Amino acid sequence: MTTRDIVLAALFTAIIIVLGFIPPVPIPLLPVPITAQSMGVMLAGCIIGAKRGAAAYALLVVLVAVGLPVLSGGRGGINVLMGPTGGYIFGWIIGAFVTGFLAEKLVREGQSAAKQMAGFFIASIVGGIGVVYLCGMPWLSVAAGTPFDKVVLGSLAFIPGDLVKAAIATLAARAVLVGYPLLPARA
Amino acid sequence: MLTSLHVEGRSLLHRIPVKPKLVGLMAFGLALYLVHQPLALTLALIATGSLYLSTGVGLSEGFRRLKPVLFTIAFLAVVNLLLLSPQEALVITLRLVAILLLAAAVTASTSIADFMAAVTDLARPLERLGLLKAADLGLALGLVLRFVPEIAGRYEALKEAHAARGIPVKLSRMLGPLIISTLKDADRIAEAIDARGIRGQ
Questions:
Q1: If you average pLDDT over residues A32-57, what whole number do you get?
Q2: A145 touches chain B (CB under 8 A)
Q3: Is the pLDDT confidence value at B10 over 90?
Q4: CA B106/CA B164 separation, integer angstroms
Q5: In terms of pTM, does the model score above 0.95?
């Protein structure tokens, strides 16, 4: 990693932490309020790419582990990582990598706006929702003893909110791509 | 803004070095999954709860810190009560709270500097594999802590700029400018780090 890669990852970690300070926004008709922080996985992957996005989240997990309240709602400490929802937090690292990998493959400068947005949206859904849930749900099921199919069923309540997040992340990622492109191209 | 969850003190837990504490926590967490008796788990919970309080965190602050996670555990307990037998639901809930309290006790009794030393040590094998440099980890974490207040200030300024122009503050409108204005500094910061030879190349 070059010094610039390290700086970009660290700055993004700081942005994710600041997003955690913003109070959650309730969305009409949705059961779960939207926290700005959980959009970070999609944003990190789509904006700074797979390697740096995953590094940004690895840094966040280290900060949580050493006992800083960097997660939304002032959560932090190993107790959060070892708790029933710890799988989601580790899943963020892999999720950011997969989002970035897909975004690097699908999105290129000079494509039409619609194509770029579609690429970011697909990457956000697969990496930011699919991968994160795939890591979080089995962990939750094992730690809390809740049967896996019921965990899957319960997670469905979060999906509409996650789709809204993916849409917002897509808009933001496209804005950054136009204003200050950072996403590495992958052939 | 980012106050550590470490609590100053001289308790037994404070005096144990960080690595045995972490190993003990992992072992305890795994061992509890082999225990299925509510009575034994209640005793474990009382023990870890007293350890947590012995760090000097205080009852109200101690509870405030764990509230979000306790809420999750309580929610899961209700779900489990509907799906599993009451005995199983009780066992699982006691186990989760007991582990939570011990993990919180380790967090409260260990300073960031001690944790960082342990993290850097854990990064050494990765360094040997050529995956990362342990020194870079310290640099990156320093950068994060340095820039959180600055980015928070930038967010407030953006909010005021929107309000001053009569535009309602919406997250979707703020993200683009916030991220671009922050990441634009990356080149300048990277040059400053390299100019000072901080990474020793």
A1: 88
A2: yes
A3: no
A4: 46
A5: no
Q: B89 exposed, middle or buried (CB, 10 Å; 0-12, 13-18, 19+)? A: buried
Kindly indicate the confidence band of residue B94, based on its pLDDT and cuts at 50, 70 and 90. Answer: very high
Is pLDDT above 90 for B138? Answer: no
Distance of CA A176 to the CA centre of its chain: 16
Q: Which residues of A touch B185 (CB under 8 A)?
A: 11
Q: Comparing C-alpha atoms, which of A86, A91, A84 is closest to residue A64?
A: A86
Query: Are the Cβ atoms of B5 and A182 closer than 8 angstroms?
Result: no
Q: By C-alpha distance, which of A33, A42, A27 is closest to A16?
A: A42
**A156 touches B at CB < 8 Å:** no
- Is the CB of A153 inside 8 Å of chain B's CB atoms? no
Put residue B197 in one of left, alpha, beta given phi > 0 → left and psi -120 to 50 → alpha: left
Q: Is the ipTM of this complex over 0.95?
A: no
Angle between helices B59-83 and B86-109 (to 10 degrees): 150
Question: Given the structure tokens 């407030």, which residue do they identify?
Answer: B156
Residue A130 CA to residue A121 CA, distance in Å, equals 12
The pair of structure tokens assigned to A76 is: 């932090």
The tokens 């990356």 sit on which residue? B186
Residue A187: pLDDT above 60? Answer: no
Residues of B in contact with A170 (CB under 8 A): none
Selecting from B112, B140, B189 the residue whose C-beta is nearest the C-beta of A66 gives B112
